[in-house]
Write a structure and sequence with these properties.
Strand 1 and strand 2 form a beta hairpin. With 249 residues, the protein is of the alpha+beta class. The longest helix is centred in the N-terminal third of the chain and has 56 residues, at 30-85. Helix content is 60%, strand content 9%. It has 2 domains: 30-126; 138-242, no CATH class. It has a 6-stranded antiparallel beta sheet, sandwiched between helices. The protein is globular and about 70 Å long. It has helices spanning 2-22, 30-85, 91-126, 128-133, 162-173, 186-190, 208-220; strands at residues 142-144, 148-151, 179-182, 199-201, 224-227, 239-242.
Length: 249
């Protein structure tokens, strides 16, 4: 009996000590605590969006610099090629200029991929509340709104199936599928999204290619969320998210 009483007193004491930290003090109404939490979440959300947009703006600046660099290095390559044909420089000097062009183009493409990846992640982050407000879908269920198309495919999806979808796209359109995010990326880490078993495809769902991919996914039973609209402050944002919606980490 004494042990039980001591345990009870200990619990009361610890609760009293932690009450201010946990927001359990008697002087703080429940509604106020809920409002404060909502306000904190809203502020945190705004900070994430703002920082991500700032990062994107920096990437745009870097893209412009790399575009200028590609023009400059390409012009140098053309100059050396002419000198090589005239016999003034060696083949190795020409190859060196050619490699420099290839590296510059690679940096430029990486910039473009990062910007597209950021736009798609921003779109999903900004529209998460709308997604959460929508009723859940039964297996095989499909729904559309002005901004979203959803399909809860029963087949599920893992990254092992990316090649299969990619082959379909290549055979249908003669080019590689424009994947903007394959699994978890640094952008999704910053936004605390679990994107490990999902990919984003930079296609507008209303385009011919986008419609074809969506039809393929529905026939295969693969879940997706297609985003029609762009986010304010982003150049685009429309894309197809293949896999279950990304939950918070």
């Amino acid at each position: 009996m004494k042990i039980c009483r001591r345990a009870t007193l200990l619990i009361f004491a610890v609760t009293a000590l932690l009450a201010p930290v946990l927001g359990l003090s008697q002087g703080t109404p429940r509604g106020f605590r809920s409002s404060a939490t909502d306000s904190e979440l809203s502020r945190s959300r705004s900070e994430v969006i703002q920082k991500t947009k700032e990062t994107r703006a920096g990437a745009e600046t870097l893209l412009a610099l790399h575009e200028a660099e590609v023009k400059r290095i390409t012009a140098e390559y053309e100059r050396r090629r002419e000198l090589y044909h005239q016999g003034f420089i060696s083949r190795s000097e020409l190859i060196q200029a050619q490699d420099a062009v290839a590296q510059a183009v690679l940096r430029l493409e990486e910039d473009k991929r990062f910007i597209i990846e950021t736009d798609t992640a921003l779109t999903e982050f900004a529209m998460r509340d709308e997604l959460l407000r929508l009723p859940g879908l039964v297996l095989g269920g499909y729904s559309e709104t002005n901004t979203l198309l959803r399909f809860n495919g029963a087949a599920g999806f893992t990254l092992a199936e990316v090649d299969k979808i990619g082959r379909f796209f290549l055979q249908s359109f003669g080019r590689g599928m424009p994947i903007s995010a394959l699994g978890q990326t640094a952008t999704h880490e910053r936004m605390k999204f679990d994107h490990r078993n999902a990919i984003d495809v930079a296609l507008h769902p209303e385009s011919a290619e986008g419609k074809s991919v969506l039809n393929y996914l529905r026939q295969a039973g693969i879940p997706f969320t297609a985003f029609r609209g762009a986010v304010a402050g982003a150049a685009t944002g429309a894309h197809i998210h293949i896999g279950k919606p990304s939950p918070r980490l």
